[in-house]
Amino acid sequence: MSSTAPLLRIERLCAGYGLVQVLHDVSLEVREAEFLALVGSNGAGKTTLLRTLSGLLPVQSGRIQWSGTDIQGLTPDQIFRHGIVQVPEGRQLFPRMSVQDNLLMGAYRRTDKAAVRTDLDRVYTLFPRMAERRRQLAGSMSGGEQQMCAMARALMARPRLLLVDEMSLGLAPIIVDQLMDNLAAIRRQGVTVLLVEQDIHLALAGTDRAYVLETGNIVREGPAKDLIEDPELKRAYLGV
Fold it and tell me: Pairing between strand 192-197 and 161-165?
């Protein structure tokens, strides 16, 4: 069960690209050890929010608090060191490196070599396909296997908050279901997960709570089981 105090709090966040404002007074909370979804159509501002949270885009106004401390203005490296780790859209693996070398890149800032080996074994247990493919070039794997590799690489950084951007993009439903099971297992190990998805049914079916983002504004929030029954959301996103 997640605690009531938020691990991450975003308050009235405005951000964008140059003079183009994409996010408008976005406020949300992520609680410790919960599985949260941020859903919305393509162009809603979901990736912009993740890029701002990760320090890749500047905050125009508003606050980002991590465990009660303001982190807006920190560099991406400083935010990463707080334990906020992103699985980016498109995976962004090193295609000419082996699977294992890609995984070890997730731990390149770490100096606890024995713990890195332990974590590698843990990741291989969670993603047995990666254990089978450990010597294979990452770029030669299927899209689903590459997504597993990207998630496993992020876990090697020992995140407290795992940000997963558009995990299902271009993948078969059976693979996506397996990846959702992986995320649920990661959450059971104590990692807080924020899943950013266009597939609203997928996201709401597997998470605790959700926020709906439209044109840079939060328009709905609540327990995922309630939002999936919301008539307006069904009409807008599910066509029913």
Answer: parallel
